[in-house]
Amino acid sequence: FQHLEKSAVLQEARVFNETPINPRKCAHILTKILYLINQGEHLGVMEATESFFAMTKLFQSNDPTLRRMCYLTIKEMSSISEDVIIVTSSLTKDMTGKDDNYRGPAVRALCQITDSTMLQAIERYMKQAIVDKVPSVSSSALVSSLHLLKTSFDIVKRWVNEAQEAASSDNIMVQYHALGLLYHVRKNDRLAVNKMLSKFMRHGLKSPFAYCMMIRVASKLLEEEAGSHDSPLFDFIENCLRNKHEMVVYEAASAIVNLPSCTAKELAPAVSVLQLFCSSPKAALRYAAVRTLNKVAMKHPSAVTACNLDLENLVTDSNRSIATLAITTLLKTGSESSIDRLMKQISSFMSEISDEFKVVVVQAISALCQKYPRKHAVLMNFLFTMLREEGGFEYKRAIVDCIISIIEENSESKETGLSHLCEFIEDCEFTVLATRILHLLGQEGPKTNNPSKYIRFIYNRVVLEHEEVRAGNVGLIHLLFEFLNPLQVKEGFDATLSYMFMTVLEPLLGTPLPRYNAVLGSQKILPCYR
């Protein structure tokens, strides 16, 4: 469908008026129209209406593929064509017909073109469809009712009895959709929602999707209560940890983990379930488990300690996303003695993961630096190695933020950290990061034992960088000179400083400066510079 032209496709649509109808050709043209619409091609009202009316003649054909394409086209063109209600009788006929393959799609298409003023005319058909014995028809009616709630709430809420009947269906999707409709009808009535949950908790459900929805509703109610978790709702979620369906078990574990003010005792059963998932042969389950454990480790690292052995096994997982999350979780829960070993394991696959996961690793290392300040040297070297590798802005910014936080919190690491950052700005493609590091040099450099060693890095940026970085450096040189003892400056360094002022600062400031004097040093220059 590349290089399709709207005018050519609309011209082809005139084939719909021909007799006899060619189902294969017409279905192909409808596919082209749908492709254009979904690619964002604008159809004028007249163009869309003309094609829509021509398409209605295709209902004369009994070809199942063509009929399904007609339903899809009606749904897509209902918002841009005029007088779409012309197909109401055809859709109603299909909806109440004997061919089950047509009935479900016809319900969805009919509800798409029906507004609140016309809904009462088809209300009887909708009620019948909701309780239909054919699952596809019932699900179509329930989902369509859910969409109609937005515009016709008062009418749809009268269908609650039919939805209740559908909720007892043996089909898992029908039960799920019925529960969804019942909840959205009653969601503004807390008492009604509680009664609905109590009823289904007593009688049980057959659909794992319905269980997942009930867990989410129950956890939402618990969050709104913001009190004790000693309630039937929490007991229900905890009981779901023993469900036979894996998705229900994970949903329950995730709900417990995300509850506010959850204690370690309440977390324990959820963590145990997630620990079992860590050894699952399914990659999706392993990923879900380790991702959730990673979240738990942020607030309750001690609760995840029991899973450390399982997490260490995941470090060598073939799925690098799982391995990364396992490592970062171990960094939050591991002991000080395990840091060196974990750093070696991380470095073995850092080049194979995306920047998004690299940022997660950096954030975990940052938390580790706060937890074990004596390990700042090992962690700083690892961060510097990461800083020299290729990466995007967010990744580099995360590393720079981490190094700066280490410098601010640990005075012993200041000079090492500043040296690493100075090396980084020598070949830094991100102006924002270079400016920030230079600003840090201006603040922390004068407080070091030998501030003069940072002059070279600042001077290089003044000479080589573009305007934003150069402008920021003017003030930094002043800050560093405030702490330099002019009498201790060597003659060779005098010449460098004098050259810097003449060739760089004079053009930037737009005024001539007195030449540097080996005896007076910065005392003679700085008054003019200020």
Automatic annotation (TrEMBL):
Report the GO terms under cellular component: COPI vesicle coat; endoplasmic reticulum; endoplasmic reticulum-Golgi intermediate compartment; Golgi membrane
Q: So which residues are the signal peptide here?
A: none
Please give, as recorded in its UniProt entry, the membrane topology of this protein: Peripheral membrane protein
Q: Which family does it belong to?
A: Belongs to the COPG family.
Query: Known PANTHER family for this protein?
Result: COATOMER SUBUNIT GAMMA (PTHR10261), COATOMER SUBUNIT GAMMA-1 (PTHR10261:SF3)
Q: Which GO terms describe its biological process?
A: endoplasmic reticulum to Golgi vesicle-mediated transport; intra-Golgi vesicle-mediated transport; intracellular protein transport; organelle transport along microtubule; protein secretion
This protein is called Coatomer subunit gamma-2
Any idea which UniProt keywords this protein has?
A: Cytoplasm, Cytoplasmic vesicle, ER-Golgi transport, Golgi apparatus, Membrane, Protein transport, Repeat, Transport
Query: Pfam families recorded for this chain?
Result: Adaptin_N (PF01602)
Q: Please classify the protein's predominant subcellular localization into one broad category.
A: membrane
Where found, per UniProt? Cytoplasmic vesicle, COPI-coated vesicle membrane; Golgi apparatus membrane
Clathrin/coatomer adaptor adaptin-like N-terminal domain: which residues? Answer: 6-472
Superkingdom, natural source:
Eukaryota
Source organism of this protein record: Gopherus agassizii (Agassiz's desert tortoise)
